[in-house]
Structure formats: C-alpha cells, structure tokens
Amino acid sequence: MDLESARARLIRQLAHEIKDKKVLDVMGRVPRELFVPLSSQHAAYENVPLPIDMGQTISQPLIVGVMTEALDLKGNEKVLEVGTGSGYQAAILAELARKVVSVERHRKLAEGARKVLSLLGYRNIEIHIAGEKIGWEKEALYDAIIVTAGAPSVPQDLVDQLAIGGRLVIPVGTPFEQDLIKVVRRKDGMEHINLGPCRFVPLIGEGGWKRE
Ligand code: SAH
After folding, report:
1. What SS3 state is found at 103?
2. For 147-157, what is each residue's pLDDT tens digit?
C-alpha cells in the first residue's frame, strides 16, 4: 500500500477514538514518514510506535491524537513539550497552537528534530537541550504542557510552570507501564483525570527516573 492510502486508512481508524476534527486534520497533513528512520518509512502510517535514535521511540499515532486532543488547544497557546524525540509531536502542536517550546535531553535527537522541522518550514517551534531542572522555566507559564516520557508521579516543578486554567498531560506509573493523567490547574487547586493506560519510554532526571 502506498503511503498516501496508508495515511488515509490511519486517519479513518483514529476517527473512531479521536473526536476533535482539527487534530485528525493535522495528523492527516504532517508527514510522519519524515520523522522516522529511512528503514521504517514504509510503516510510518501503521498505528504503532517506531524506534528512533538513542533507543527512544516516536509515539503511536493514537496516543499522539489522544494527548493532543486532551490539551484542548484553541490556537493562541504557548505549549511546552518535554521529550522532543523525533519532533513529530512538536509539529502537530505547532499546527494547533501559537508557539511550542520543546526540550530534549539527547543532543542528537534535538538536532535531528530541529533539522526536519525547519525543512518543513515551522517557525513557531523552539527546541532546547534539557537542563538539570525539568521543563523550561525561562519561558513559563505555559497554557498547556505535554510530557512524552513516563514519570513516577506528576512533577511539582512542571505544575509550577502551568498557567491557571492550563492543562498538563503526562504518563504516570512504573518505567514499564503508565496511566495517562491530565491535570488541570484551577485557581483553587488541581483537577486530575485518568485517560487510561499507556506505555512510554522513561522520563530521566529531576521529576523522573535516575537512569535508563
Ligand atoms: N514526542 C516524541 C516522543 C519522544 S520519546 C516524538 O514525537 O517523537 C521521549 C523522549 O523524551 C526521548 O527522546 C527522551 O530522550 C526524552 N526525555 C527523557 N527524559 C527527559 C527529560 N527529563 N527532559 C527532556 N527530554 C527527556
């Protein structure tokens, strides 16, 4: 099957679970094959995670859709992503928000993502090499935060980078399996919603796990 038909089939599958038309539309446009290694480009529109460099993975399209939908983006937001990886999720976010700040701890992945994102013409994405502290405090507060690696708990330092009314989506659990948690920061406290099971590579460092 050619990539074009595979992409159309994937979007039809995702439409069973993702109700936000804008999210489906963007996932139908961003070329996922450019974010995976050449050797797996033929599988770019299978609904599966795929290996990328440094032992990491590009998330399964369904989970990209679920997480993006949960952020409730209207178009004017500043969004933080923790875990740039291939840069695919950052591209999806950049289509739906005003600005994306994405941090990655592996320099090689950050550089690869910068390259493909600039090739595709994105001007509203900043990619930084992660520092000691989780997130990217310099540009806080964020209207939405997405963490694409699994954490042992919701890191308070990230909640502190979230604006009032902001949404944080993060996998929380063991290094092997997690639940996708949506946290909404309200004036008078936090609301937690469990969006169901998921499986991510571990978040490493402050707020995450000690080593890979
Ligand atoms: N969103 C990515 C998926 C990335 S996989 C995509 O669309 O392709 C998760 C990424 O999180 C890995 O690249 C890993 O190196 C990175 N990561 C793990 N801990 C991190 C941390 N504390 N800060 C920033 N990035 C981190």
Report:
1. strand
2. 999 999 999 99
